[in-house]
Description:
This protein is mostly helical.
Amino acid sequence: MAIIVNLDVMLARRKMSLSELAQKVDLTLANLSILKTGKARAIRFSTLDAICQALDCKPGDILDYTADDHASPVSTTTELNPY
């Protein structure tokens, strides 16, 4: 996956445990653990907002993007149909 989750880095910088964050944002430890390990497939903006408030950071401090080498390239050719 091309999205990298740096939640563990921000937790270390803030000297906060995952369970402490879970209490502050009112999420289960299991759901935050899934996010922290990068296994989450989605995140709600309200959840991201709560995490950013609790960690005093921006979404870009938690989420990062890197090009995925295995992604299929988007076709740049188009076929024109005269009809």
